[in-house]
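TL;DR need structure tokens for one chain.
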Amino acid sequence: MSAEATNPVSAAEADGPDAPSRRRARPRIDLRRLGRAALLGPATRDRLPDAIGHVAEAHRAHHPDADLAVLRRAYVLAEFSHRGQFRKSGEPYITHPLAVTLILAELGAETTTLTASLLHDTVEDTEVTLDQVREQFGDEVAYLVDGVTKLEKVDYGAAAEPETFRKMLVATGNDVRVMSIKLADRLHNMRTLGVMRPEKQVRIAKVTRDVLIPLAERLGVQALKTELEDLVFAILHPEEYEDTRALIAENTGAGDALAVIADSVTAVLRDAGIAAEVLVRPRHFVSVHRVRLKRGDLRGSDFGRLLVLVGEDADCYAVLGELHTCFTPVISEFKDFIAAPKFNLYQSLHTAVAAPDGAVAEVLIRTHQMHKVAEAGVVALGNPYTPPTGGDGTEPVEDGERADPTRPGWLSRLLDWQQATPDPDTFWTSLRADLAEDQEITVFRADGGTLGLPAGASCVDAAYAQHGDAAHGCLGARVNGRLATLSTVLNDGDTVQLLLAADTASGPSPAWLDHARTPAARIAITAWLQAHPEAARTPAADPRPPLSFTADRRSGAKLHADLPSAPSAAVRPAGCCTPVPPDEITGFQVRGGSVTVHRTGCAAVDTMRRLGRTPVTVHWGDTAECRVTLVAESFGRPRLLADLTEAIATAGVAVVSATVEPPSEQRVRHTYTLQLPDAAGLPALMRAMRDVPGVYDVSRARHPASHDE
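>> reply
TL;DR here they are.
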């Protein structure tokens, strides 16, 4: 956590598009002055050290009654343990934890977070132990410090970085403040990355882009996310960054156009009696670059947005009504994230209005509390473990359980699938892919529950999200009451009912990987296919061979019976259970001297034993060819028989006979007797038949046999 360098983005630029005006106005810390103050230590026992006076000031702005004594003790320990250590810039190392703590203090973090932030590198880089931190500052601070402590490369080698992130995410699942500290730590390191070698700057910037920025977005910490985006943009895309910087420099007066519209909006709201604060919010570098790619040439109003802050939720809609009444609204730009908050806690009304001169201004409407959460996300929520107060507002409610209400669904899913990926490379790849999904949908289960899934998820993803490994036997789904294939992409608000096979031996098809978007689904499918390599192989065949309907009674698979009294007796499979290699089998001699072979679990075997028939020892020959009867249960629809027959033919299997029973309650039963060139292809054939839309189960025939007993 000790990256250090000259900031590639100036202090004013890095504050981001939507940074509050107080953040833009605050000068960047003078590290040299801070370094000298840090080395001086505390002035007296009763005063805070001068080096953290600015931290205390920022903290008290959000928490006026905060007890600063613990911060003083944490600083003294951090300064003493880091004494003699220097960053690559030459500054005392203590300036890093101080800067990280200041970032969090300005976002409104509570005292425990700030204490852990001051100490976040002590266990990793000094002789201080985690037990010492726990003894002096308690379990919560020790947990946060441990959560952000890196694993040593000497122990983990190349896997140190992915395993460190795995450890950190697991810790975040129990306390989101772990990731808050990590994000602030990475922001300060990115601000000071310039003295690193260019190749190391690029490596760190890529990890920041692929992992840390998506995590900041998902945790709603927009103030950190926007600055991280600009810093990464400057390193990974220096030419585009310089073009954007030049464009902003050429349009220094662009804010005037928005200021004129802001004055008009202020007047309209004042006349309507709505108390509101109207601010002009400049866009940050990446935002300007994206708008330029989307719109081409930019007008003055494109370089920023208007922010309207009000007191109550109802006032947000009142402001919206006035704006749409007094200005020309751009309807396509309207979004309501108050009624339907984003999955990262974000709430706001988005709209755009056109001024009389044609200039279009984007407007964000939110309450002051919504704005605080929009800027700081989970940091603004304080200590998630503070017990709620009772009805009188004084006594805490003791429920005996510490539940973190800020743990979102995406984090729970991430923690679930990471347990199934012991391989660090697979975890690292899956993590980046998961975090690349920046939209989330909610679908409703048939039992009334809900599933949170990334946008673009299919029924395959829903199956594994709801049923875990039991989803291996999923046959299809009903989406909004209508039959759907597993490849169906789900939309926000859909209701999905998943259909599972009764046969627990069923498994997923390799084609499912083409429709799985979530790491949980992909990891589970891949693991099953690796454990069942035969399932990934399908019999080689002409893609569309001619159908073969034959009435001969040959079984295909060679059967032999140990029957000394009739060595030449005919041996044939029973029609009731159609055994195929490598089924366990039992034979019985019937009228005419022939031997009928059953699967050992067939009901006819018990019947024959009750009749006093003596079993005959039978075994399979060397030929892999076999005949089998399959029953396909399906929902009725046009062309179903044709599609099923095509799936069978595509697998290179000959149809000996086929029957279709009349539909009953929209369900249809198809019975096929099939000649397989290789019994090993039976599982793949059954999966191919199940994948036909409308089919919800395929099983081996189990019906009463007509024996000649």
